[in-house]
Amino acid sequence: MCGIVGFTGTGEAAPVLLDGLKKLEYRGYDSAGIAVMNDSGINVSKVTGRIAGLCEKTDNGAKTPGTSGIGHTRWATHGAPTEENAHPHLSNDGKFAIVHNGIIENFSSLREELKSRGYVFESETDTEVIVHLIEMYYKGNVREALVKTTNRLRGSYALGVICTDEPGKIFAVRESSPLILGVGVGDNYFASDVTALVAYTRNAVYMEDGEYAELTNDTVKVYDCTGQELEKEVSRITWDVQAAEKGGYEHFMLKEIMEQPAALKATIEPRVRDGKIVFDELKDLPDVLKNIRKIVITACGSAYYAGCAGKYALESLGRIPVETELASELRYNNPLIDEHTLLIVISQSGETADTIAAMKESKSRGAHVLAIVNVVGSTIAKLADHTIYTWAGPEIAVATTKGYTTQLSVLYMLSIWFAQTLGTKDVDTGYYVNLLKSLPRLIQQSIDMNPSVSGLARKYHSNRSLFFIGRNTDYAVALEGALKMKEISYLHAESYAAGELKHGTIALIEEHQPVIAVCCNERLIEKTLSNIIEVKARGAKVLALTISGNKKIVPVADDLLFIPPVDELFSAAVEIVPLQLLAYYVAKENGCDIDKPKNLAKSVTVE
Ligand code: BG6
Question: Is 396 near ligand 1, meaning CB less than 6 Å away?
């Protein structure tokens, strides 16, 4: 996720653009840039790193005079966070500058076409294909060129564009990425969200998909793709800046839980082509696989638990033995890792020291390393032989949610890709691709079908300890569910394989002991049901997470959370959502600092 801003008015543009970018920095902060128009043309200034560097480079905008311009703060998806890849990008003829938030799924083919037509690329970004298309289609009318350009694009985009033939005018286009216009007095704005606008105006026009806006200092016009001008309502922004950064949610964690359907969509859709999984980033991996005899997954925290859940799909579809190892343990276990091992490293930040150390140890033993990372250009991404990015956008809350579920979606895609590449017998990859594509919708359903979760939190928030139990894929979910509860609500929570309880731990079950039973794996529900009955016989109170409408669990459980039916191999990404929400609301009941839990860090870069 990136942040874009635009300004046109009677005053200097650069200071307003820089201020707006500072407010959007939470959306992405690995590089930034502005493009300002004046009599000498378009003046572009870009930096890697934070907005502060851009302020310094432009002397707070003094070095880029002009009264209209656009700006961008980047969360890298295509191309490392370098100055060349930073936005704004210029057309070859220097007439156009563009900023973009979103992902262009068909950028590879467009890039090849444009290159064959003689267009020269300065960056590795998907965005740059857009500005060259605009130049190619421009015949004197910018909006017409924008319509022809966007007709060629597949994916999501919020665009800001300026053109030297239209001094004082800024253009904005919206498709599946948020874009809001700010209506001022003698000046007008656009931005990715209201955070960047509220300091200047509280009059907002929310653009819809397929709309094209043209702003001058005293006019705001919005058109559809046919050139028909649209009547747009001006809304009053009531949020304060802090609330706006969280999109109106009280905490980043809740915002990021709710973003999961969109995050999975962004991670999955660009990799599904003609009913198959395509990883452009894994070009020579098929040859490597010929010598691979086992897969070892290593990570820390929730990333490790994502590996534990993804293991079932990888083994079932890829038919390669998969081991999971905590990174902080692997490096001291004298691991049986060699050139016949594929090490899969999972890390949201790409900077976790234990994971980096385990990766280096494994590489030294000959392993081939595939990384699943959210932060482009991070240490782990650079060290790996192959990297698949989870395009979850920046995750601000320390306790990961969309990071974990997008890691799972990549593991699911990888399991299908293995089946395709290795030709696993009797695996209907088409079925699993369709199942994968349904995950964003199923996650949204698992949010919508549990309106009572905040009420349940009031019932469970004061317990000294909670048990999370489950079998197979449900056990992997119980591991992550217990960790979420511990790390943000500070309640002691223990996850157990449900079948293991009777071998000792059940001694701890006493009257009113809460047990959260994860029983969504239809194949094993009867077994977990017997464990629920076992603990209830000893006085436990059972909150069951199960499939909506399940007739066996519902009569037995004291409380219930539901998910829609989903195949066990890919169910963890759906099952975890009600447990994320439960942990969130329990923590809220306990008055915890949810986005910054005590003693924790978003990424632990020390061992
Ligand atoms: C912990 C974080 O410090 O590190 C967890 O609080 C995370 O949320 C774990 O799962 C691993 O971090 P990463 O960045 O390697 O996934």
Answer: no
Sheet of 465-470, strands arranged across: 492-497, 465-470, 514-519, 541-547, 559-563
Cβ neighbours, 10 Å, residue 286:
13
Give yes or no: 2 in active site. Answer: yes
Provide CATH code, domain 245-447.
3.40.50.10490
Does position 468 have pLDDT exceeding 70, yes or no? yes
CATH no. of 3-238: 3.60.20.10
Chain segment 290-348, per-residue pLDDT in tens:
999 999 999 999 999 999 999 999 999 999 999 999 999 998 999 999 999 999 999 99
Residue 378 Cβ inside 6 Å of ligand 1? The answer reads: no
Contact 222, 174 (CB under 8 A): no
Give the distance (Å) from ligand 1 centre to CA of residue 404: 9
Best residue among 304, 346, 349 to mutate for probing ligand 1's pocket (most ligand atoms within 8 Å of CB) is 349
What is the predicted pLDDT for the residue at 243? 64
Residue 68 CB–ligand 1 contact under 6 Å:
no
CATH superfamily label, 453-589: Glucose-6-phosphate isomerase like protein; domain 1 (3.40.50.10490)
d(Cα 575, Cα 580) in Å, to the nearest integer? 9
Domain 245-447 identical in fold to domain 453-589: yes
Kindly give the distance from the C-alpha atom of residue 601 to the centroid of ligand 1, in angstroms, as a whole number. 8
Q: What's the rounded Cα separation, in Å, for the pair 454 and 456?
A: 5
| Cα–Cα distance list, 253 to 258, 288, 413, 558, 593 (Å) | 9, 39, 25, 28, 11
CB of 37 closer than 6 angstroms to any ligand 1 atom: no
Name the token pair of 87: 């936005």
Residue owning the nearest CA to atom 2 of ligand 1: 602
Checking if the pLDDT of 502 tops 90, the result is no
User: Which tokens in the block code for residue 522?
Assistant: 């239809």
Q: How do the domains of the chain map onto residue ranges?
A: 3-238, 245-447, 453-589
Residue 158: strand pairing partners: 101, 174
Strand partners, 407: none
pTM of the model: 0.78
Q: Higher model confidence: residue 324 or residue 510?
A: 324
Average pLDDT estimate for 17-26 = 90
Distance 347 CA to ligand 1 centre (A): 7
Is ligand 1 within 6 A of the CB of residue 375? no
More confident residue, 351 or 585: 585
Looking at residue 521, its pLDDT comes to 95
- Mean pLDDT within 582-593: 95
- Selecting among 2, 163, 300, 519, the annotated active-site residue is 2
Q: Letter for the amino acid at 416?
A: I
Task: Judge if the beta carbon of residue 348 lies within 6 A of ligand 1.
Answer: yes
Other Cβ atoms closer than 10 A to 226: 6
Cβ of 578 closer than 6 Å to ligand 1, yes or no, is: no
Name the residue at shortest CA distance from atom 6 of ligand 1.
Answer: 602
Distance (Å, whole) CA 503 – CA 495: 14
Q: In the annotation, is 163 catalytic?
A: no
Question: Is residue 584 over pLDDT 80?
Answer: yes
Of residues 255 and 283, the one with the higher pLDDT is: 255
Q: Is the pLDDT of residue 602 over 80?
A: no
